[in-house]
């Protein structure tokens, strides 16, 4: 199969996959283009044991991981001041919650609601890229911690810190934008 046929047959699916993981249209387009170029260069090595689409997706996964790894190296971790302020507000000197989290509905109830998904997406999008990448890899994509560390080029301790900070910020954002929303807002909890 030639490049034009690959693009027609698989381009949209590859782009959708890359866009969902990279969250940047330009990065996703570049990753897909690099995938096609790598496939062209390596098509002599394609054994045909898996389907062509699976082979292309395998190449794309590596391109996405490379881009995420590069982002992790280029994007500095957030300023410690903001993270420290969040921790001080949330916990007392002994490490206990100052205010207990509000009782949330069962997760499957909230996720069924389109509005909640939009609020969650907004909250995720507001995270600094380093925190967002770590959270998406581990919590949403189900990547093992060791693999996530390799993808992001960070230590296990750094991954734990990023996940902790991401969870705190998501909790804070969801408390403000969803769980403390006005009672008359459709689909929101008071």
Q: Could you describe the 3D structure shown?
A:
With 190 residues, the chain is mainly alpha-helical. The chain folds into two domains: 72 residues, RNA polymerase sigma factor, region 2, helix turn helix motif (Rna Polymerase Sigma Factor, Chain: A), CATH 1.10.1740.10; 100 residues, Arc Repressor Mutant, subunit A. The protein contains nine helices and no strands. It starts with a helix and ends in an 11-residue tail after the last helix. 22% of the residues are buried. The model has no long low-confidence stretch (mean pLDDT 80).
Features:
single chain; 190 residues; mainly alpha; Rna Polymerase Sigma Factor, Chain: A; Arc Repressor Mutant, subunit A; 2 domains; 9 helices; 71% helix; 0% strand; elongated
Task: Give the SSE map.
Elements: H1 3-22, H2 25-42, H3 52-74, H4 80-90, H5 107-111, H6 114-126, H7 129-140, H8 145-152, H9 156-179
Helix pairs in contact: 1-2, 1-3, 2-3, 6-9, 7-9
Order of helices and strands: HHHHHHHHH
CATH topology of the largest domain: Arc Repressor Mutant, subunit A
End-to-end separation: 57 Å
Beta percentage is under 5%
Task: Characterize this entry briefly.
The chain has nine helices and no strands.
